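Annex B. Sample input.
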Amino acid sequence: MIEQLYNAYLQSHAVTTDSRAITPGCLFFAFRGEHFDGNAFAPQALEQGAALCVISDADYKVDDRCIVVDDVLATLQELARHHRRHLEIPVIGITGTNGKTTTKELVTAVLSKRYRTSATKGNFNNHLGVPLTLLAIPEDTELAIVEMGANHPGEIASLCSIADPDCGLITNVGRAHLEGFGSFEGVIRTKTELYRHLAAKEGTVFVNADNATLMEHLPRNTRNITYGTAARADVHGSHVADNPFMKFYFEVRDNVYTVQTHLLGAYNFDNCMAAVAVGLHFGVEPWDIKEAIEEYTPTNQRSEYRETARHNRLYLDCYNANPSSMAAAIASFRSLALPTTHYPLPTKMAVIGGMHELGAAEQQEHERVIGQLEACPLERVLLVGPEWAPLPHPDNMLLFPDTEAVATYLKEHPVSDATILVKGSNTNRLWTLEKLL
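Annex B, continued. Sample output.
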């Protein structure tokens, strides 16, 4: 059955799970959702030109172009795994608690200077996104970059069994999805499943030499390439400044390359150095690496900078939030110097969304964030979400049940001449406040 599917796939190299995105010759995988049944769209998909439909309900079988299986997702994953075995190109796996998507995009930008690359779109990095990423790799691709996310033990190992990376990196390990992982140690065990996969095939690991946890868990039978500020790092560099964008340098054969990025926050130094290390390993020239990173501009509310008509400077990082990324964002914002040429002098404030999936650690982690905000001199802090309600907080921190309540407040209390950190997860929808700030 997989061979039948694969032969059909090779005719179009097109797979979709969306009946609205049918193209001639594609394979349609019919998933059941909470509010829909993809099986019901199989007849329509065939009418629109799909070559085959994979369904789990025989009642919707029109003819032999419908393949009935017990598990549509497992079949999609097996097709992707089968396709990966036929790919004769290096595959780079990227995982970690924070910075996965930014690092993936930086690595892609760097490698694209020399190779035809294919990479995970957006953060399509889960049990469904990884197989779709593999099946979307164009035929002329020379290098593939696959982002892998997880919120439960065993998920990185499962994704590695599909993507089968030859080399890879873990950006960092932090206190995220504790509800699913059970503990910080559970996070470490899950993320380092990538290391164990690479060790089994004697692959290559890129690792931040400044990260003690990752260095401690390095496998012995992999080729390990280190990067960072440590003197022992194979690829050495250093953070220079944030003005407001992060500037850093890296060294290659006694030559120093200074890079002015469009990224906010010193924490992006590690992401950039990972891209430098990967690029050098694959033979990209240092000047091309510098140019690729300088040309990269973040999107999707990740480390974005905005100047508004109200003379506000916005630091938008509202796609993802967990205790480690929150601490890094606040620390970076705390060290940010304000302009001294404006009058009235600008002030600092923050809009902070509640964090999710922390389980029993929820209250402790939110209390920790309040302490971090207290140490960062701010005129006002708007705390958004029910997670903050039971916690003691200083007078300059205002509580709001949701983003709509913040919007109402901002309409009644307009903000001008301020430097504002907006930090939260996509579910907080803090990005909708941009027009009011």
